[in-house]
Amino acid sequence: MSAIPAALATATGLGGAGAVAGFVLPYRLRVPVAGVLTAGVGAGGVVAGVAALGGNRWTAVYSGLLALAGAHLAVDALAGVFMAVAGAVVGAVAVYGIGYAAGHGAHGLGSRTAQAALPLFALGLVLVPVAASVSTFLVLWELMALGSLVLVLAEHRKRPSVRQAGVWYAVMTHLGLVLLLAGFALFAAQAGGETFAVLRAGAQHMSPAVRGLVFVLVALAFTSKAGAVPLHAWLPRAHPEAPSPVSALMSAAMVNLGVYGLVRTGLDLLGGGPAWWWLGLLAVGGASAVYGILQAAMASDLKRLLAYSTSENMGLVLIGVGASGLFTSYGDGPLAALALAAALLHVVNHSAFKALLFCAAGSVLRSTGLRDLDLLGGLRSRMPATAGLFALAALGAVALPPGNGFISEWLLLQSLIHGLEVPGVAVAVVLPLSVALVALSAGIAAAVFVKALGVGFFARPRDERAASAREAPPLMLTGMGLLAVGIVGLAVVPGLLGDGLDRAVGAVGLPGSGVLTGG
């Protein structure tokens, strides 16, 4: 019997219980109880995701759960990647968040509203990849979006900038919803149904113009959620102003679902498409990677720097997805599989090091009240554990060995370089440029994180609050330690993901790459 339905049912029950506990319990109880239940949601996501990566599949229809259409659910290896990543991030960050919220009193992240929204947001992160119909997907997508909006606004009483960020986020996330509604409504009308199975079959009989319009609409929505240009404006505003555990969840788990939506819709449901779809996505990815890391280089706000770094890394992932679609359009399945495997591996690696970076930045903020690198300094001696963990995550972010980000960026470059053998003028122009953009972003990323470490942790303190900083409490260090273990594991034994990534690539009809397994 598959563990998937039991794990998902457990996660759903714990998420509901966590929301109730967060709303009704007094402050001293609601933070630890809601935090533990949220961690349970993450554990359920990990179990279900790992089972799917191991080859298990599951489908179910609950006709009475959603009016008219019912709830259609399905889990395959592609969904498993994103469920497992979201679950792991949720579990570690929930432990960290208990210690973080305990120092903020009954307001902000410790408030009833925030503690009730946290497990529901976590549940949305885990369940979005499980949806197997348009209506189910949109309901779960909106659960995730509204939960994150409530949490972004958690500290609105402290700073007016939080309210401004919340307005930006609300507008951009619901612009994305409108685009999704338009794209999926057109898709369902042309295919004759709204389940993913019907969409997959109906896409083969749609006209090229309609298929192209559907792809453009949903791609705009999904790249916005991934923090890619040009619809990225919410990300550098919302991530810095959200409580740090929420920033970690958004930057290490939520943005991934934009990538999931692109892969599921573009490569699976639409069955791939002409080269211009993927050339456009390559352009968006390249622009996002360079723009994001250049903005990070100029940022002095530590959390804003990390937010722009997320745009850069999601740009690299989109380059991989775009290259995969481009190779598919030219009939080169093995290269398409390699590019997609590299993109999915970078999703995993980025989630690990970015969650730890945001948690470490949150520890600094909680201890000093500062985000401005120009006022920090001296933290290496005053917060040695946090400094060491930040350095470990930064090593992954600069994509140098032995950091965990190295292998995925290396595979991405290999797929682009080998793709130069594919005939075609567009390929001959775009792929060398993509290689240059990946290399450029990696070089600037090294400078960015050298600055963050050197100025924030190793330089002399330039503010009394930095000079009197204290190490984070044990629960926060425990959550960061769990993320650090994941980073080290991904760096030392990336081959453990090989079979699962092969199955995930195969879920969209591509041959397994076999790169990490030696196949």
How is the topology of this model organized?
Elements: H1 4-24, H2 27-53, E1 58-62, E2 71-75, H3 77-102, H4 112-127, H5 134-152, H6 160-191, H7 196-202, H8 208-225, H9 235-241, H10 244-269, H11 275-298, H12 302-329, H13 333-368, H14 379-382, H15 384-397, H16 405-418, H17 425-458, H18 464-467, H19 474-492, H20 498-506
Antiparallel strand pairs: 1-2
Helix pairs in contact: 1-2, 1-4, 2-3, 2-4, 3-4, 3-10, 3-13, 3-19, 3-20, 4-5, 5-6, 5-10, 6-7, 6-8, 6-9, 8-10, 9-10, 9-12, 10-12, 10-13, 11-12, 11-17, 12-13, 12-16, 12-17, 13-15, 13-16, 13-19, 13-20, 15-17, 15-19, 16-17
Polypeptide structure, described:
The protein has 519 residues and is mostly helical. It has a domain at 274-519. 74% of the residues lie in helices and 2% in strands. It contains 20 helices and two strands. A hairpin with an 8-residue loop joins strand 1 and strand 2 (71-75). The longest helix is centred in the last third of the chain and has 36 residues, at 333-368. 60% of the residues are buried.
Question: Using only CA atoms, what is the Rg?
Answer: 21 Å
Oligomeric form:
single chain
Mean pLDDT across every amino acid position: 92
Q: Output the strand order for the largest sheet.
A: 1-2
Any idea what the shape is? globular
| Straight-line distance between termini | 29 Å
| SS elements, strand count | 2
User: What is the helix tally?
Assistant: 20
- How much helix, percentage-wise, in residues? over 70%
